[in-house]
Amino acid sequence: MSNIPADLKYASTHEWVRDEGDGTFTIGITEHAQDLLGDMVFVELPEVGDKVSVGDDVAVAESVKAASDIYAPISGEVIAINEDLEDAPENVNNDPYGDGWLFRIKAEDSGELGNLLDADAYEASIDED
Amino acid sequence: MGSRTPLYDAHVEAGAKMVDFHGWDMPLNYGSQIEEHHAVRRSCGMFDVSHMTIVDVAGQQAQAFLRYLLVNDVAKLKTEGKAQYTSMLNEQGGVIDDLIVYHFSDTSYRLVVNSATRERDLGWIEKVAADFDVTINERDDMAMIAVQGPESEAKLKAVLSSEDFATIEGMKPFLGKQVGDLFIATTGYTGEKGYEIIVPADQVNDLWKQLLAADVAPCGLGARDTLRLEAGMNLYGQDMDESVTPLESNMGWSVAFEPTDRDFIGRQALEQQKQAGHHKLVGLVMEDKGVLRHGLKVIVDGGEGVITSGTFSPSLGFSIAMARVPANVGDTAQVEMRKKQVTVKVVKPAFVRNGQSVL
């Protein structure tokens, strides 16, 4: 069974969101998503300072198998990106909830978080696939 | 549920992700396919290739039959066990399949053909064989393991008896030898030194376990694809099929037009195409970020082409591809990628051999 931490929020498009408690949110892709994609070879990230809206395609995870768009799960400004992925895209496979994080957003409206799935709902959504 | 090789349970036990491959349940990877790829380039890996089809051809007219069926000339094979890369075509010159033929004697040969095309291949072979004094025997009692990589010979030394190992020690490439119950050939699909071992199905699990114990890494279809593409080797159904000829598929070198009095199926069509000109299969290299993929459009000086196989090359660290393009292609091409046009280099379709870049 896929690892789905209970303290995170999820988008149905397989991004996870961690509330850092200071109005910023860290985003990555789930273990289930990296498993579907296989070995990651390139990760294209947004730029720090980019303004993004919910549902924008803001990054690309490219694996040996396919290129997959990553969508912004909340609106706001990108305040950090995981530059280590440039040289170590495999971090997304090996540690999707840790060293494999993608970018951090300063939320415009943290109320948007309510539209995301909790761990149980995300698990139910991937069981339907 | 698809067909299963005798090693199916061993794959599942090793944690393989099983996928459908032309009706067979085969391992895609056992973990990281890039690590499996590196194991073959740097030490040794093994593949279950039991889904491939082994066909023995015997009889007074075995040589005459194969000289008519196949584009390469089996009469060139003089040494017992010598192998030859070849293909069989339809009358229009389209590739029915590519294969390896082993010569035991002028009355006894072995063919190893693809699994994807098994039924059609067997049907075609039987049909052409009807006019010759030959018997066709599909060896579905046999399984097959490919052991590939620079340390392959040392690994075989570890699992074979010293007597058996002595018979294949230092064996030159593209030879096969019967060693007890095993048929061991210095062939492969990775661009590395290595072996393809045909083994009775009821013994294959023991051999697999012995190789595992000798630290040979099990490798799946994912690594097999990146390895063969780096080596510039075609995949049937992707880089060629019945709609194209060997000349359009970088397989012209395996077509024996000499001697001119040997007729083979598709010869006339190939001779006409040679006169008229034709597309060719080239290699593409993209050092920018991104991965060239099957089906992408390629724009070259002479017109338009298409990527037949594309991947990320784990050995090189960037993307490589094979593409079928007009013959007067220049040194660069444009590929329509996701939301952008990218300039890529055009090279001969071979990228890595024996662990080293050949670009």
UniProtKB/TrEMBL annotation, chain A:
One cellular component (GO) term of this entry: cytosol
Ranges of residues in domain Lipoyl-binding: 24-106
Co-factor requirement: (R)-lipoate
Keyword Signal: no
A GO biological process held by the record: glycine decarboxylation via glycine cleavage system
Pfam family membership, one: GCV_H
InterPro entries: 2-oxoA_DH_lipoyl-BS, Biotin_lipoyl, GCV_H, GCV_H/Fam206, GCV_H_sub, Single_hybrid_motif
Modified residues (N6-lipoyllysine): K65
CDD domains xrefs: GCS_H
Cofactor note: Binds 1 lipoyl cofactor covalently.
Keywords from the UniProt entry: Lipoyl
Job description of the protein: The glycine cleavage system catalyzes the degradation of glycine. The H protein shuttles the methylamine group of glycine from the P protein to the T protein.
Family listed: Belongs to the GcvH family.
Quaternary assembly: The glycine cleavage system is composed of four proteins: P, T, L and H.
Descriptive protein name: Glycine cleavage system H protein
Gene source species: Idiomarina fontislapidosi
Taxonomy of the source species: Bacteria, Pseudomonadati, Pseudomonadota, Gammaproteobacteria, Alteromonadales
